[in-house]
Amino acid sequence: MKVGFQNLRMDDIAKAMDVSRATMYKHFSSKEEVIDGVVRMYTDYLDKLEDRTSNDSEQSFGIWFQQIFEQSVMLVGQLTEVFLLDLQSAYPELYEQLKEILNKREQQTLKFYQDGKHKGIFNDINEKLILLQDNLLLREIATTKYLVYNQTTIKQVLLDYYQFKKIQLFKADKLSSVDDSNIGPRIDHLVNKFNQTL
């Protein structure tokens, strides 16, 4: 789905999912049902980012930062422009559902950055630029071309970007509110997902 689906047949989808046609047809009777399932999977994943309370501790900002980082990487890796354009033209109602949950996530993320600035945890950076940076920079550094040209791995790039973003966002005296021991397994999971699609 990463490269779009307009030209895919059910056989192609079954092959990409590494299942037999018979197994696929047990669960999905049409390509539309497959796409609906994919969109539902994305919306469920994005909905997992729970609402924060107003009296969050400094440590909770570290936890939320890591959750947002993980989601940002997953979104860039899975929701490509080609997929979104295909979805918009072929299934506009599914596109609107997905766009709605993406907009909700964006608003939650902006509020998170604003709250962190107001509480003195984050540096005074324009939060809209942070979102744009994630979208543009993550898309670029996660490409095979970038990895090969810079003789690096997706794991190293994600670790470097995580450190870059943490230092950029958190004030120096608040960096200790982020427990970096939690990010290793998350990055390993992301690396496995990326390796499946490269």
TrEMBL record:
<dbReference type="Pfam" id="PF00440">
    <property type="entry name" value="TetR_N"/>
</dbReference>
<protein>
    <submittedName>
        <fullName>TetR family transcriptional regulator</fullName>
    </submittedName>
</protein>
<feature type="domain" description="HTH tetR-type">
    <location>
        <begin position="1"/>
        <end position="46"/>
    </location>
</feature>
<dbReference type="InterPro" id="IPR009057">
    <property type="entry name" value="Homeodomain-like_sf"/>
</dbReference>
<keyword id="KW-0238">DNA-binding</keyword>
<dbReference type="InterPro" id="IPR001647">
    <property type="entry name" value="HTH_TetR"/>
</dbReference>
<feature type="DNA-binding region" description="H-T-H motif">
    <location>
        <begin position="9"/>
        <end position="28"/>
    </location>
</feature>
